[in-house]
Structures are given as structure tokens and as C-alpha cells.
């Protein structure tokens, strides 16, 4: 069994933010999502896969990920986290295992709470703004344009979830 987590912020005003690319890509993978308060997450199940969208803000998502892993008796090696990455060009996708957070606070929180970085990550490029245009912490909270959302939606994320 695998746990696939889409990182993002849970409020409607963040729905189209660059930082929410994990939510954006994981949400369509399942037909029915159920809010599970004790796990602090929205959960969907498909045969041998559990999909998860933490209902806490991204930088505190480690608690929800830990609760879901424990509830389903899974280990960090069963975990795949889909998240945004400033260091990759827009729409470039890379798979990684047992890597550091590279400054991503949501990923770092998961590492801190789990006490390990031995899990899988699917990094989705959102590009990086020029330094004189916008600080990264503001850029990630900007909405994608309609055109950018269309390109993100065209990513076949399932092909990157095979480890």
C-alpha cells in the first residue's frame, strides 16, 4: 500500500496558488474524498493507494502525514509527497528519494515530524521569480494564471508516482 500526499494550503483562497500544486495534481486522482478530522486530512482510497490532502497549513502538514501513516500502519518508505519546487523550471517534474527539503518548509516539517527523510518526493517545478520582481515567499502564494493552470493540469502525474 502507498500513501500519496498532495501538499497545499487547505483554504479556498489558496486553491490556485503555486504552492498548492500538490493539491491541484492529487485531487483529480480520486473520485471521492472524505474529511477525517482525527487524521487532520482529506482521504481517498483506491485499491492499494491512499490519497491524502492534509487539512493543516502546508508548513504544519507533518502531523497529518504522520497520523495517516500510523492509522494505516504504513512506514515512511510507503510515502510519496507531491509538492511545488521553486528550483525547477515551470512544469518540470522530478522524482526523488531520501533527499533534504531544499528549503521547502512543508517538506521539512514532514522530515522533522517523521524523524527521517527516507520517503519519496515528486517535485513539480513552479519556476523562480527574478529576485528584483518578487520574494519567493510571496511568489509561491500567487495564483497560477489560467494558462499556467491548464499546463499544470496536463501533467500526467500518475506516471511519476511509480517508484
UniProtKB/TrEMBL annotation:
UniProt KW keywords: Hydrolase, RNA-binding, tRNA-binding
Does the record bear rRNA-binding in its keywords? no
Which Gene3D superfamilies does the record match to this protein?
Peptidyl-tRNA hydrolase
Please verify whether the record's keywords include tRNA-binding.
yes
Q: Which InterPro entries match?
A: Pept_tRNA_hydro, Pept_tRNA_hydro_sf
- Which GO MF term does the entry hold, naming one? peptidyl-tRNA hydrolase activity
Name one matching Pfam family.
Pept_tRNA_hydro
- Tree of life domain: Bacteria
Know the name of this protein?
Aminoacyl-tRNA hydrolase
Amino acid at each position: 500500500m502507498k500513501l500519496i500526499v498532495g501538499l497545499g494550503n487547505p483554504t479556498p483562497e489558496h486553491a490556485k496558488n503555486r504552492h498548492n500544486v500538490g493539491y491541484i495534481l492529487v485531487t483529480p486522482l480520486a473520485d471521492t474524498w472524505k474529511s477525517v478530522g482525527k487524521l487532520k486530512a482529506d482521504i481517498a482510497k483506491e485499491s492499494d493507494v491512499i490519497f491524502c490532502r492534509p487539512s493543516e497549513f502546508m508548513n504544519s502538514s507533518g502531523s497529518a502525514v504522520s497520523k495517516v501513516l500510523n492509522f494505516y500502519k504504513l512506514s515512511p518508505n510507503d510515502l510519496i509527497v507531491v509538492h511545488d519546487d521553486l528550483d525547477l523550471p515551470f512544469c518540470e517534474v522530478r522524482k526523488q528519494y531520501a533527499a533534504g527539503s531544499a528549503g521547502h518548509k512543508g517538506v521539512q516539517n514532514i522530515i522533522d515530524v517523521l524523524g527521517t527523510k527516507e520517503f519519496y518526493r515528486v517535485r513539480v517545478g513552479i519556476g523562480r521569480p527574478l529576485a528584483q520582481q518578487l520574494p519567493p515567499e510571496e511568489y509561491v502564494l500567487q495564483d497560477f494564471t489560467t494558462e499556467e493552470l491548464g499546463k499544470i493540469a496536463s501533467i500526467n502525474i500518475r506516471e511519476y508516482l511509480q517508484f
